[in-house]
Amino acid sequence: MPVAVVTDSTAYLPAELGGAHDLTVVPLTVVIDGTSGDEGTQVTIDEVARALGARRTAVSTSRPAPAQFVSAYRALFDAGCDGIVSLHLSAKLSGTVEAAQLAAAEFDGRVAVVDSMTTGMGLGFAALAAAQVARDGAGLAEVKRAGEAHAGRVSTFFYVDTLEFLRRGGRIGAASALVGTALSVKPILHVDEGMIVVRDRVRTAGRALARLVDLAVEAAGDGTADIAVHHLGAYARAVALMDEVTMRLGDRLQDCYLTEIGAVVAAHVGPGVVGIVVHRREGR
């Protein structure tokens, strides 16, 4: 393949896709009580869930070191690729894009770094689309454009039981976090211009899930779309959400995935989260 595609572990690509899409994944780091490890291999989602349940256990995350990207890029060039497109989670949520850019500077323009302005399968759908274009023989600029275009076609909405974990990690402002405490309001969040912001407020978890369905169908528009449902310890909620959106979209729905989120995002949203990513195949 003349152009290789790199992403990071917060893409949360479904296990059933395996390695079929020629993607190199660089892991972020999770730190539990001062002990760090790579997301997905050295630190599991179960470990993070247990740590979040223990109030005195500190959980944090950090970007990959630039050296990790240098190593990944060099291995791909040694394997024979001519260029690399490196797509990553929003620079407003993590320093991962900056680390990739620092590494890319060592390769004389042969590595193009893309800020997806999102995370989860919003990033995953963009990486998969870029990999497909690369498999078709496109050059560096075209693969980069594909990654950017498809990242712009995703909408991400999610519900959390509490905004406390997002507040602690600095991923949402203190003023917005108050929404989740006043009058038992249940917040629906979305990723907007790379940031996590409050989209709606409802009174119950049931209404939150119903609103997620409406938002997903609206985001899909009139064309074909893919969806990915993410959750953490909320499988029944996730299945109910996926089933309802699947029914509402009908034959306009193409690919559909259900995955538990990984350790990095789990550390910031906490247990009970359920969300949906809509990827429009064409258009806006």
Report on the structure:
This protein has 284 residues and is of the alpha/beta class. 37% of the residues lie in helices and 27% in strands. It has 10 helices and 13 strands. The chain has helices at 45-53, 66-78, 96-104, 121-135, 140-151, 164-168, 174-177, 205-220, 235-249, 263-269; strands at residues 3-8, 23-26, 29-32, 35-38, 59-62, 83-88, 111-115, 154-159, 186-192, 195-202, 225-231, 253-260, 274-280. It has a 6-stranded mixed β-sheet, sandwiched between helices. Strands 2-1-6-7 form a 4-stranded parallel β-sheet, with helices on both faces. A hairpin with a 2-residue loop joins strand 3 and strand 4. Helix 2 (66-78) packs across helix 3, helix 4 (121-135) runs antiparallel to helix 5 (140-151) and helix 8 (205-220) packs parallel to helix 9.
List keywords for this structure.
37% helix; globular; 284 residues; 13 strands; 27% strand; 4-stranded parallel sheet
Unreliable spans are: none
Tell me, rounded to a whole number, the average pLDDT: 88
The number of helical elements comes to: 10
Radius of gyration: 18 Å
Shape: globular
Q: Main β-sheet: number of strands, strand sense, barrel status?
A: 6 strands, mixed
Strand order of the largest sheet: 10-9-8-13-11-12
Ends distance: 29 Å
Strand composition percent: 25-35%
> Helix amount, in percent?
25-40%
Number of strands: 13
SSE arrangement, N to C: EEEEHEHEHEHHEHHEEHEHEHE
| Structure class | alpha/beta
